[in-house]
Fold each of these.
Amino acid sequence: MTRPTPSPTLHIDWTRCQARGACLELLPDLLHPDEDGYPLPAAPARQRTNIPLRAAQLPAAQDAVALCPRLALTLRREK
Amino acid sequence: MTLTTPLPSVAPSPAMPARLFAAGPHADATLHAARFGPLPATTGLVATLRDSGLTGRGGGAFPVAAKIDALTGPPATIIGNGSEGEPLSRKDATLLHHAPHLVIDGLLLLAAALNPKARLVIVARPDGVDSVRHALRERADGRDIEVRVAEDRFVSGEATAVVAGLAGAPALPKDHPLHLTQRGVGRRPTLLFNVETLAHVALIGRYGAGWFRSLGTPEDPGTRLLSINGDGIGEHVLEVPGGTRIIDALTAVGANPDAVQAVLVGGFHGRWVPARHLTRSLTPRPAPDADGAPVGAGVILAIGVETCGLTVTGSILEYLAAESAGQCGPCVLGLPRLATRYAEHASGQEVDASRVWQLIETLPGRGACHHPDGTAALARSALTVFTAELDRHRAGTCCEGPHR
Ligand code: SF4
Ligand code: SF4
């Protein structure tokens, strides 16, 4: 039986994020700055804390996870 | 905020059922046992709960059986949540005052069915805590149940906030990549139910799924408690069948629907329903295109024809902005900004609607809890429903009071 591979998501811990912007530079098509510099995911409202990623975005997302100075980002695979 | 106000009475309205308060007001252990008998057996409890269709009464309306199914192990902690952060919500305190033994029964039944060794906790506002402690002294089987006072903040009733509070931290929402049923108190599987949900569990355990479904609708089986407040109608807690029409809930507490201009359904994170739609039914979940009004945790606020809904909403938005738990940037900065821009627009000063609407669109989904989402939804609802008032404010006339 083949199960669909769950699409990875980028999780933002909003209690940690302090708008340092590293993720915005690495993922310009996924995240835009709001008027205070906090990431505003292009995803619909329901998916703005667990943002679905396309395969091509995965390497940049991994970099963002590693470089976020506030450790606010995690990659998740389960659905 | 309303901790010292007396609790509403629960004298049954002739038009409405009395299940949760069937043992009468102030049901002590004797009255409770006389009406409901001893605790039932727990064989098949989860299957019965599934058949009953019972959903959580804390606002999310998540199916109780699905939450139990999501557990990744026996629940190490089971929590009855009566934190009731909404200032206008009195149903949990009222339930704990008049029918505490049903809530305790529900908690004990779940423990017996899922993990007899689980840590059991009831969290409530101070008056609810007094009621539960008193009830626990009347019976021998609840000695291990811990009773905790909830913090008096709007967001402290949120599930992850309650769990944080139990760990000795401030009762604030936490980032939760995993659900509590996977990782809650002590990072172990945790079940949290609203206290009213537990009271329904106690009844379903005794009388079964068919009995539960004999009231309400297929979408919203059983009964639910409402906290009804408003201009000239005082404070009431009312039990109604699922799917009850707003107008019937209002008349059951003696309100005159003709004197009502609009009703805020679902509390401060709820939606406005104008007077012409009072025949709409209360629904368990939001259904954007349907003709329903999502009931949330059951708070209903009616405003009279003399009151301006835009202005009322402005005060609620200010309150909600101040209740942001100060943790998540987009919420901490965005909610006060929303309150300000809303006020500028609603008062007619700022004609460009895009400044407030842009915030309403971008706030949701960016917080550790749903406070930004609910606050934006309230603003959206007010600006959508009170368009005539908006026009009047722009034309420089106030729609409230003697200026009418
Ligand atoms: S890199 Fe981290 S702290 Fe900076 S904006 Fe992104 S999530 Fe926030
Ligand atoms: S979203 Fe707002 S209310 Fe919720 S935890 Fe974050 S700061 Fe607090």
Note: Residues 25 and 77 of chain A are 23 Å apart (CA to CA).
Amino acid sequence: MTTTVPTSAVQPAPVPRRAGLGRVGLYVLLVIAALFFLLPIYLLIATALKTPDAINLATTWQWPRLLNWDSFVQAWGKIGGNVGNSLFLAVVSTILAALLGSLNGYALSKWQFRGANTLFALMLFGMFIPYQAVLIPLFQFVKSLGLYGSIWGLILAHVVYGLPITTLIFRNYYAEVPDALVEAATIDGAGFWSIYRQVILPLSVPAFVVVVIWEFTQVWNEFLFAATLTNTSSQPVTYALSQLAGGQAVSWNLPMAGAILAALPTLLVYILLGRYFVRGLLAGSVKG
Amino acid sequence: MLLPSVVLLALFVYGFIGRTVYVSLTDWGNDPAQALATNPIIRWVGLANYHDLFTGFLQLRFRQELVNTIFFTLFFILGCLGLGLGLALILDRNPRGEGLWRTIFLFPMSLSFIVTGTIWRWMLQPQGGVNQFPTVLGLPSGTFGWLSSTDSIWKFDWNKLPLLTAAVVGLVLVWLAVRAARTGDRTRTIVAGLCAALLLGWALFVGPNVKLLPAPELHGFNLALIGIIIAAVWQMSGYTMALYLAGLRGIPEELREAARVDGASDVGMYRFVIFPLLAPITLSAMIILGHISLKIFDLVYAMAGPDNTYTSVPALNMYLTSFRQNQFALGAAIGTILLILVAFVIVPYLASAFRSEEGHA
């Protein structure tokens, strides 16, 4: 059995390659599917590189004759500050949510107490609720703390609502850590904190990588909190982009360049560390 | 150690939900003058906001949005499951460069719905983008109004909604009763059968006379939603592909071998061995996609704009009602309805996931 149980989603199964007509059909289908996924990106880049007067509905698909990098400069001028906001927001929220999630996961998996699973299920529910159902009290609460319009209100929201998924990933990860390790440390007289620091934390690096990548992407891409809890100076990039693209008078090169700027960080994370991104993705379906 | 997180989540999830439900039962913001006052006069109005949403003359938009959400969810899930399964089956045959293909199919997942929406808004411009495709083959360009169409199909009268709901739920209960009878579960047969009889009886004798609205009001599937569904499938089908691929790779090679030895054809093997093993994955994908689609609003916001009523969804309406019009009570009511819809999907799932886990432990 052990040879056939995959360790991750990316391990290919040992099925022999077969040649023939079926294989050709297979590649044709793959290419068609890839076109569906890539054509929007082609159009995005082509439009971002056109000069405003070269953008014409009838010639949408043509590659620009003259490459115009100026759109990126302009778009950066409009949303560059928001990119900075998003970066600060995503980094701080991710670190806090990951640390708290790691502690929770440790407590829930290694210090089993009565009702731990029920408590965990109640925590997880927070991951699935539509945030519209908590938005008005959240808005009032952040306002009453004096944090409305500042990035810290947004960080608070992201840390709290990020806890369920980070706890879930760490709990599932720590469940694989042998209990004997913790028991041995207990016999040596180590307590809750020293076990965490000396045994659990050093083992946690792979889980932290998954959580950090996943949470960073989620916070970076979020829109609803961004639109309700901030004002002009602290708006993250998703909101700024929606304002940039929403105006009717703007020519399309600008929102397309802006979309590239807003997408680049998470896209790079995905391309460089896709394996961990996919693990976070699969953990999101609860049973990970 | 756990305590701070538990307290935070108790407040931010359950406390805030309770507060939202309370606000939805008041008239906060229904009088614009009071909405943003420092100490607004807030009166308890019971279910009046809900009554207004479902039957009020001015809330026609909300009712169409509910219908939009149902159609959107249906086609979004079908699209993601179909495309995701197809791609996973192809990749499971080990084409060359598998990693590259997987990267291509999954990358939209890493984008935000706002970015996806911005790109696809441009793809689906009335005279450009996708509508220009046929000109590549020398055909005249398309004219479909992807995001701007005002046509709808499969219309039905809102007044028939209770009737339709009762009939559908009744039939499901009949099916449950029949299934329970087959497995010999007597109490379940009787309970399901009685409920079904009650509902169907109501649908036959009382339902036709129930009128929610003074006049017929038609709602259907707005064609402008098709563009948004395509963009959503583009973004999320990689997720189902990853789920299915993980599932396919988890099927032991011995099982496939055994099926081949038993003389199963390729089709037969998929039909009788592989698809049944993928059923739990399909269910969990449906639940995850379902709750995403009930909550979706940033994609709609970015693609069709917040004011396009033909493509609007309740989640978007809640944001506009609460934070643009400052009608907090009405917004809270919409938020509560969304929560109930999502809870229908999520609670049984969480409950079953953790019941089985306690059983194993």
Note: Residues 2 and 132 of chain A are 45 Å apart (CA to CA).
